[in-house]
Amino acid sequence: MRYSALKLLKEGLTGNKGWKPVWREPELKKEYDVIIIGGGGHGLATAYYLSNKFGISNIAVLEKGWIGGGNVGRNTTIIRSNYFLEGNQPFYEFSMKLWEGLEEEFNYNAMVSQRGALYLIHSDAQRDSYARRGNAMRLSGADAELLDKRAVRDMCPFLDFDNARFPIQGALWQPRAGTVRHDAVAWGYARGADAKGVDIIQNCEVTGFDIGGGVCRGVQTSRGAVWAKKVAVCVAGSSSRVMETAGIRLPIESHVLQAYVTEGLKPVIPGVIAFGAGHFYISQSDKGGLVFGGDIDGYNTYAQRGNLPVVEDACEGGMALMPIIGRSRLLRTWGGLMDMSMDGSPFIDKTHIDGLYFNGGWCYGGFKATPASGFCYAHLLATDRPHDTATAYRLDRFRTGAVIDEKGQGNQPNLH
Amino acid sequence: MSQSNRILGGQVDRAQALSFAWNGTTLTGYQGDTLASALLANGQRLVGRSFKYHRPRGIFTAGSEEPNALVQLRSGAAQEPNTRATTVELFNGLEATSQNHRGSLKHDLMAVMDLMSPFLAAGFYYKTFMWPKAFWEKLYEPMIRGSAGLGRLSMQDDPDIYDHGYLHCDVLVIGAGPAGLTAALAAGRVGLRVILADEDFTAGGRLNSETYDVDGQAGADWAAALTGELEAMDNVRVMKRTTVFGVYDHGIYGVLERKTDHLASSDGKPRQVHWRLYSKRTVLCAGATERSIAFGNNDRPGIMMAGAVRSYANRFGVTAGQKVAVFTNNDDGLRTAQDLAAKGIEVLGIIDARAGDFVVDTKGRHGLRKVILNNNTQIEADCLAVSGGWSPNVHLTSHHRSRPIWRDDLAAFVPPQDLPFGMVVAGAANGAMTLSAAIKDAHAAATAIATDLGAGGATGAVPQASDEDFDIKPFWHVAQSKKRAWVDLQNDVTTKDVKQSYQEGFRSVEHLKRYTTLGMATDQGKTSNILGLALMTEATGKTIEDTGTTIFRPPYNPVAIGALAGRARGKDFRPYRLTPSHEWAQDNGADFVESGAWLRAQWFKRPGEKGWRDSVDREVTMTRKSVGICDVTTLGKIDIQGRDAAEFLNPFMPTLS
Amino acid sequence: MIINHPRLGPRDSSEFVYKGDANLIDRPDGLTASPDEMHDYAYLRDNPAGLIRELWYHEQGDRSWLVVTRNTLTHEIEAVKMARDVARARGRAK
To answer: Which DSSP category does B552 fall into?
Structure first.
């Protein structure tokens, strides 16, 4: 069923009775060509591209809860391609281009909204660093501009320029960056994959793998055993738990990132603004709530909730940056489950077990990567070769020394 | 026509008349009124417009669970959007305006959206606005963003100060209703350090709104006396206007105390204080919140929660209407009819769903005029008091991702077995829905804690009260209604949306919420989530028990960002760390650079030097030729050695070694 | 969170810096360990969903290191020991 204004009109005139399920509820089969473990943004995107671009649709997406219930439904919805290192930036720019064509591609309004992202500069050293980054962005084909203080003030006069502890001196501006309606991404990919015959199976937990002689032949689930030629793990913060049953230890720690939204307000913030002198970033959703985030709590956890000090910290950053939001009220806080890797960069790779593939380590930056992660993982699964933009995302890169450490923090996951 | 709906009685002080402005019109109320009670007293039923369809909205409740009466409070830099009129304490000179309309409140130009409602059903925006591509950013999105949100920020810096503080106690009692007061007194009597917190400005909870007796006294008087007794105890701290908004790990709570919101001006004092509270034990006495019933056109101004109608009558001396009807599925709704009749208000009918009577439709666009029943009877009422039953306020028990448990006999969720550290629940929040049961439950909880903590002494006698009648038949919506029936009043989610969501494959309760936005408004579905859940189970064929709820998250009520930030703003965002030579360097014209929180002199510009290179080159040359001096205090450490080193440091260190 | 420091009593966790899995105490000998052993020590983690023994550094207190046994699903803390004691018991320190 194709969605359009005309369809809305027609259905509206006839009592809205003709809407079809966005995805089916099929029975789990005994065998598939590919099993994707994890019905989140990346898993569903992988299923979409495999079935829509690589001609493989005998696929099952196995999700232990309800699809989109993990990080894809809990993030602060920002998309951008402003990374620095060569192993990263082309990948994120590839993702950006996929975002730009997404709604047309899968006929679902994910509200891809490219109103720009301002990364604020508060010192000379920071300006130097952001200038380098901006150049790296442009080398990858992305857009980047270095703005001075006046330009930032013209764009966002409500920021604190006059009384700040760390005065704003300029910004790195990516005009094409922006926000997306996160739930719609999961639902749009699910719909597009389902339409090609992909089986999306909810409430089905993978409890183990069928591995023998160095080959993975399928999985055990809460609904029985399933055979597959290829098994693709894609479970973000649950990566260690799942891969443990395959006997694989990962360079990952699971952490919580809290996120926040205020009561709905008439328009205040035009695009995405990131504070440079504290961990705080903010945008405004199309429903009017200010959506913002701060730092991770910093300790290993699977609880998907955090503690007060970080909440206070994030709000301090907000008030330092824009004291106009003092009287807006925090409506809801929540937390996700982040797979923090040892260098802050992800993995899209085969494992040493034939037929078993792994996608994870996205830290708190996985949402913007959703389209490219899905496409590149699909490429890997379909051709057994990495996509050009994802060649550096190897599980063995710590052994070979090819780490992709954007922050230069070393093997301390909670610092990335 | 001043205060046409004022009736005798209540806790308002008629000797203190207050003047306030509502949408530019000056009205009168009394000390002790909320903005909502004062508006109702003045016959103001229309207070806002709903989010999507811009339908007229009236005051729905008498508490913080209010979905409709969201106003813009104050003006200028102190302007506060989305403020619930039901929790604003009236003060002299108060200014409030309605939100979310273009043109006047009564003639909102956006009301045309209601006519388009068949095309604006749940999730409509996912199916359109995609073509032509360029129109999304140039036309569609600006339109959507322009109509989004309800209130408006002033765009000026928040002029108020906010403080942070730390509190410690043995027992935190959350809620100062009959259960909370009982628990606090019992714990206080055995010498435990008690903090009693309530979001209201008067302790007593529902006792202020009902006509029950405790210990032979009127409930409200008993509550006032007990509060006085508690305030006089050295080991007890009573905190009114204080919301415990979040449960964190290991007995740590996020608490917000409102200091000056009830005054015309904060006068330079902290407006609110955000406390981090550490408690060994907690008794959650948060009571229960009434929920609605869905029926055709159940969203008109004048249709209110039955318990709220009693609150306005008994506590504020205000009748919500002159011709009142009651629609209920439980015994509690009947009490509204009794209490109003006792005040001389005409009660035109009691529509009891248990007897097979329902409301199928209503009339009156800007305010209720008529109620239409399933047997075709019509009642000319200007107020319909609705009671769908009461839901225990279990939210705080589930901040650690436990899920509450369904009880068929109460037709409500009660707290889970797995509670946060140190917490027990008592009173209506624990499913003890009647007065005496609630009091006994709380007394037992406090006594158990006292034993557990090894506190000696007697917790005292159990206050005496009776149990009111309690009978409920689950009844969530009138299936026969042909007209749209609202579930979420603020976000305009109807029973049709819930059905359509199921039809489109969104079958988990979390999918239902996200697809329809049910429960995502400023009230977080406090009066409506359960209706949506029940409707969904009708579609899925599962039980409410098996379906479960969405996740409960802090804050229980919205908290101002300024309060969470406290004093750390402007130049005080982070401390300045200055080296010993800072003043000297400043006097000698240094340019400083931030190094973490330190300020370090970068170079000293001399007359004639054009840029930093000139200065730096001169300094380097000088250092090479003769001598240079650099303050590297920022990198230094102080090493104290010797037998008495620890003793020497003790006065300076926050911890003992 | 509240960490019950063996010497100082209950302290708020925000006084501490989090290091990570307490298995870091068992560092292989850099001169004799294989690259695989060093790699696994430096980069691989158990990352359990359940009890973990982890290192916390009391930066804003007495600057001691602690080994905390905590449940990563519920945040409940079962035990807190001085890291020095744990290391000694494992023969990692004198």
So the answer is: P
